[in-house]
What we know:
Elements: E1 2-6, E2 9-13, H1 19-25, E3 49-52, E4 59-60, E5 70-73, H2 77-92, H3 108-115, E6 132-133, E7 139-142, H4 151-157, E8 165-168, E9 175-178, H5 194-198, E10 204-206, E11 219-224, E12 233-239, E13 242-248, H6 259-269, E14 277-280, E15 283-286, H7 289-292, H8 296-307
Parallel strand pairs: 1-5
Antiparallel strand pairs: 1-2, 3-4, 3-5, 6-7, 7-10, 8-9, 11-12, 12-13, 14-15
Amino acid sequence: MITVTIDGKVIQTDKPKFIIELARENGIDIPNLCYDKNLDVVSACRLCLVEIEGSKKLMTACSTLAKDNMVVHTKTDRLIKHRQRILQMLLDSHPNDCLTCQKSGECQLQKYSYEYGVKFREHDGARREKLVDDSSPYIIRDDSKCILCGKCVRTCNVMDDRKILNFSNRGYETRINLDINDTFESSYCISCNRCVVACPVGALMDKRAMNLGRKWELETKKVQCKVCEYGCEFEVLRKNGKNIALRALSPENGRPLCLKGRLTTELLNVDNPKQPYKKIGGEFVEASWNNVLGLDKILKKIEKIDNK
């Protein structure tokens, strides 16, 4: 057994774990914007730095394994000031539109900025350029809100048959690209929504679930996709007694997420599902539910059998 003390709480574990995961399992929240237990660790945001007794250097909780007799502090004055500086730099480059942003109430940057008392401020320095990709009926991207945590790139690259998202340029000009500067429509993106689920801010959003209600207005119910054995999880958004939209949940435990599964689950659970689209020749076109879900041949066969 490994015994670790985090913020005065003595914790025991029978196998090596990263400090952030051990803390999370025991109700201790260590701020982070780039960590996901299902993805490779990159320690990019530096928000999860902690103090370990016996070490002068601050250590990233997402990449430091807990060791026996380790004593960890997560909320010292030194750490608070460090996190405030990081959050301030992110806000200085972020659009001040939290009041109208669809991610409000679920945005991790908003959450930690509130907790650490960091606010938007006026300055003459650079801000991220507002580049909006509205070409897809399933995903909308706003580069001005991107914090370059890389979670979208990593979750896309988990799937060998996808690997669409990547980093381009360097320094402050760094941005996320699809293929080679393509849009969602012209790229090879299959609209699985893995990137949307991973994004901690409003840079990537589910377009079919937008502008239907705020987080605090909605009820949610978890459902599973029945298209294949993976059973990807979704949540049905409900407002005023009606099921108004569907949203993908984390694709953990090897679940891939796919558009066919999402649309099938949406059709079965949403009262008035939106028009489906299919990508043909690099363009999204309206299509029938039969065509999008690949039911044409099945229905024709059933009709033929029934006619007999």
